[in-house]
Amino acid sequence: MSNNSAKQGRKVERRAHRRLRPSVPKAVFIARTRVRELARVFAHRFGDQLPDSDTGRRLLDIALVHIADSDRANPDKSVRDFADEWAPWLDDDEHEAMIDEAFNRRRRRKWKADALAAELELTFADRQQLKIVTIGAIDMNVDARTTRRRSRKNEGRAQRRHAKGAKPRCQSLAQTQPWKKLGIGRTTYFERKKAGILYDVRTVRTNTPPLVRSTVSAGKIDADDAMTREWNGALSTIARIIERQIQSAKRRAPLGRAARSKSQRKRIDEQCSFTRRLQTAD
Questions:
Q1: Which phi and psi angles does 118 have, rounded to 5°?
Q2: Which of the residues in the chain have pLDDT under 70?
Q3: Residues 6+ apart with CB under 8 A from 220
């Protein structure tokens, strides 16, 4: 089995596993995730426990409210265990008072991402370092974070498309419009490209070797030079092909120039002009 097939199989298995898992309400999912993120913030700033101060009590109260709102199997035990772990300096009366207050306020107090970041004074650098996703940042609001996330996602998609061989839109035919540089219309450009006769006299004259340019410009053909014969043979072949296309177009419109459509007249004029330029170069 190839690597792509194995990866696709693992994706299908994960998708099926997610369907079998019981669904969790969004508010409960955010509360559970924030409890883990708050624990990371506390450990990053204070170590093993919160400080015995107003700041420590305020941060503990925020965490206890989220634990009480996380719909755990035994929410009372979860709240008590968290308080004992992060605030062992609380006395029994204050301990019980904070737990009761957390359960009384759990359905009334909700923190938005940026509001909670203001409570925690969390910067964007710390947010990135601690891999926090449900809490905002005081120095980058939700609109700025959304714009940054979209730009990073678009850059990643562009890199993946480029790795697969896709061209940027600025390099597409619709943007570059090479038919304008050749002096022909868009339809004529694709018709000649399909027929394999997409040449331009200006490009031929510019890209020919110096010997060929000198002999063509002076009207002299050096029969002994193989490169000169090759170029002139190619020009003659192109002229004959286009001449046959012109004659075929005239046969398809036998009623004369006035009865032809505008696009037919334009195509015939362009082909005649191109043939004359080739004959002049020859």
A1: -65, -35
A2: 1-4, 16-22, 105-108, 198-233, 235, 246-247, 249-265, 268, 271-272, 274-282
A3: none
Q: What angle do CA 203, 204, 209 make, to 5 degrees?
A: 115
Phi/psi-derived region of residue 234, left when phi > 0, alpha when psi is between -120 and 50, beta in every other case: alpha
Print the SS3 string covering 97-154. Answer: HHHHHHHHHCCCCCCCHHHHHHHHCCCHHHHHHCCCCCCCECCECHHHHHHHHHHHHH
From CA 56, how far away is CA 67, in angstroms rounded?
A: 16
Give the three-class secondary structure for 194. Answer: helix
The partner residues of 137 in beta bridges, in order of sequence, read 140
How large is the greatest C-alpha to C-alpha distance in the chain, in angstroms? 111
CB count within 10 Å of CB 168 equals 10
Q: What is the pLDDT of residues 137-157, one digit of tens each?
A: 999 999 999 999 999 999 998
Rounded Cα gap, residues 174 and 186, in angstroms = 10
Query: Structural domain boundaries of the chain?
Result: 3-110, 176-281
Q: What is the pLDDT of residue 215?
A: 38
C-alpha–C-alpha distance, residues 11 and 17, integer Å:
10
The pLDDT assigned to 213 comes to 40
Contacts with 78 (C-beta within 8 Å, 6 or more apart), sequence order: 67, 70, 72
* Tokens found for residue 138: 């005081």
Chain-centroid distance of CA 6 in Å reads: 25
Question: CB–CB of 72/35 below 8 Å?
Answer: no
